[in-house]
Design a protein that fits this description.
The chain has helices at residues 2-12, 17-43, 55-62, 64-97, 103-115, 118-129, 134-141, 152-176, 180-188, 193-222, 225-230, 237-246, 253-280, 298-326, 342-350, 352-382, 386-394, 396-400, 403-413, 425-449, 454-461, 466-494, 498-503, 511-521, 524-549; strands spanning 328-331, 334-339. It is an all-alpha fold. Strands 1-2 form a two-stranded antiparallel ribbon.
Length: 557
């Protein structure tokens, strides 16, 4: 009897398909997220000799250097947030409520600003307003003194024009969906235009405004390339973590991990604050009787168009400058009068492996992101359990992790056997994969929530296994969203700088890393041509995503 009972128990314990997906998802998160973060935490309590100590945390709060870096991080974070809110709100109001000529062109400029990496923006501003920048030199020749763009103000300018699309895309959609009857009723009750905005429009768009602001804030405090290129002594936590890790003399992994933990904690705190703010006062509109766009006249119309085009062109300027300078004649790193393709010829002759690395690493990481992210997204959407909710919450951690933190965490975790991957292509691919995995999970979960489970259940009732029903019924229904998500994941993967800068060796260098090195070396021709290649790849991916998403720009977020 016992011999018969044992197989029955084994058959009863046989896991189904989605249980296996859950187990695999947790295994991936444990190996690529929780263990590296755990080692980062442990490393922050060790000194150079490996002894347990609180010295790193004590230095953080007593060293003038690190306190200044912490304060500077908050300055650029909230300064970038303020700039993004100002530019994004103005753009959103004008585009949602006013008739603006060339509106599609303006939206395209905003998308171009969004997909171009921040360090390319820093490079473009250096070309225009750096010590030898063409606009600065022109103004100096006219007797108009203009300080170079380096320092905190340069960083804030780049962040404002780089991150305003987050606010613009989310807020413009919210403004366009407000029920016009509410504002008309407020007008009939005698409220001034300012009062109507403050008491009616603002509460309705606050969740979108705070969500866009949160994205700008998180990206600002996590950004490494812009403060590194423009700071000139204005250091932030991300640059200090990189310096602590990469110093040729006195490299201090413990201090680097301590700074990395502070960055994670800051990001998580801001996420919780935004969620609290957006849920505290929730207002709804019925999405009918939407506002009509107003046609301004005279000076007001000119001012509105000037503001919109100034913001749009300012955000897209990095891509424009990179494209122009990529076809300037060069003699080595020095620009010459006229135009030519010497920079592209040099890339073909000597930097083909850099382009190939970026394409291969991004392609493999996106393949992993799409396959695994889609499975986890379906699990989260279809199984409303405590375990799936915990899994979804855990995936918030890599969402807010700065790239420099991912790089340092992977060095701490995978520098020794049995998983010694430092210096290999695998460590770069996996770092991009785990950092971008939440995007695919959320996009596939959102797509699946729009598809009822009845067809999948019907397929199972007709004899399909859960795997067959998933592959033959569910996947075709959400395939456009999956492919669009893959294109958007490719954009973020191919432009990844901060984690790759920590993890690369000579044979695994990527285009963003080479651009960063070329800018530091003054080789602006190579930087411009590689930047243009990156922008073309990103633009192509965005175009394909739009074809599948119906030109919904907010899907980029």
């Amino acid at each position: 009897m016992s011999a018969v009972a044992a197989p029955a128990r084994r058959n009863g314990w046989r896991p189904d398909f989605w249980t296996l997906v859950a187990v695999a998802a947790w295994a991936i998160l444990i190996v690529l997220l929780l263990i590296p973060l755990g080692l980062v935490l442990v490393s922050s309590f060790r000194d150079e000799s490996g002894q347990l100590t609180l010295a790193n945390w004590q230095r953080l709060f007593t060293s003038t250097r690190y306190l200044n870096a912490l304060i500077n991080t908050l300055i650029v974070g909230f300064g970038g947030l303020a700039g993004a809110l100002l530019l994004g709100s103005v753009m959103a109001f004008c585009m949602a409520r006013l008739r603006i000529a060339g509106g599609r062109f303006v939206s395209m400029m905003a998308i171009l600003a969004l997909v171009s990496p921040p360090f390319i923006g820093a490079y473009s501003w250096i070309v225009l307003f750096g010590s030898g920048g063409i606009i600065r030199q022109t103004l100096m020749g006219w007797g108009i003194f203009m300080p170079p763009i380096y320092g905190v103000w340069g960083i804030l300018i780049v962040f404002a024009f780089k991150f305003y699309p987050y606010v613009y895309l989310l807020t413009s959609g919210a403004l366009a969906n407000i029920n016009r009857s509410l504002e008309e009723a407020a007008e009939n009750l005698g409220l001034t235009p300012f009062q109507r905005v403050l008491k009616i429009s603002f509460p309705l768009v606050l969740p979108a405004l705070s969500a866009g602001g949160l994205l700008a804030l998180i990206h600002a405090i996590a950004d490494f390339g812009t403060p590194r290129l423009l700071g000139r002594g204005f250091n932030v936590l991300a640059t200090e973590a990189y310096t602590a890790y990469s110093a040729e003399i006195g490299s201090n992994l413990g201090m680097a991990t301590t700074l990395s933990l502070v960055l994670i904690l800051m990001s998580m705190i801001f996420v919780f604050i935004q969620r609290y703010m957006s849920r505290r006062n929730v207002y709804h509109s019925n999405l009918i009787n939407r506002p009509e766009k107003i046609q301004l006249r005279g000076f007001a119309n000119v001012a509105a168009h000037a503001a919109v085009y100034f913001i749009a062109l300012g955000g897209a300027m990095p891509a424009i400058i990179a494209a122009i300078y990529s076809i300037r004649k060069t003699n080595g790193p020095v620009f010459q009068p006229g135009f030519g393709l010497e920079s592209y010829s040099r890339i073909i002759a000597t930097l083909g492996d850099v382009v190939r690395n970026s394409l291969v690493f991004s392609g493999v990481s996106v393949l992993l992101i799409v396959v695994i992210g889609t499975l986890i997204g379906c699990l989260v959407a279809r199984r409303n359990t405590a375990q799936s909710s915990l899994l979804d919450a855990t995936l918030m951690v890599p969402y807010v992790m700065p790239g420099i933190v991912v790089g340092v965490a992977f060095i701490a975790a995978f520098n020794t056997p049995p998983l010694a991957m430092t210096g290999t292509a695998a460590i770069i691919i996996l770092s991009v994969f785990i950092r971008r995995l939440p995007y695919a999970v959320r996009s596939s979960a959102a797509a699946l929530r729009q598809v009822g489970p009845s067809m999948e259940e019907a397929a199972i009732s007709l004899g399909y296994s859960p795997v067959q029903a998933f592959l033959k019924v569910t996947i075709p229904l959400i395939l456009p969203g999956i492919v669009a998500g893959a294109m958007l994941s490719f954009v973020t993967a191919v432009n990844e700088l901060s984690s790759s800068l920590v993890l690369y060796v000579g044979g695994t260098i990527t285009m963003p890393v080479k651009i960063y090195i070329a800018i530091n070396d003054g080789d602006y021709g190579t930087a411009a041509s590689l930047s243009t290649i990156l922008l073309v790849l990103s633009g192509t991916a965005i175009y394909l995503a739009f074809r599948l998403l119906g030109r919904d720009e907010r899907a980029l977020l």
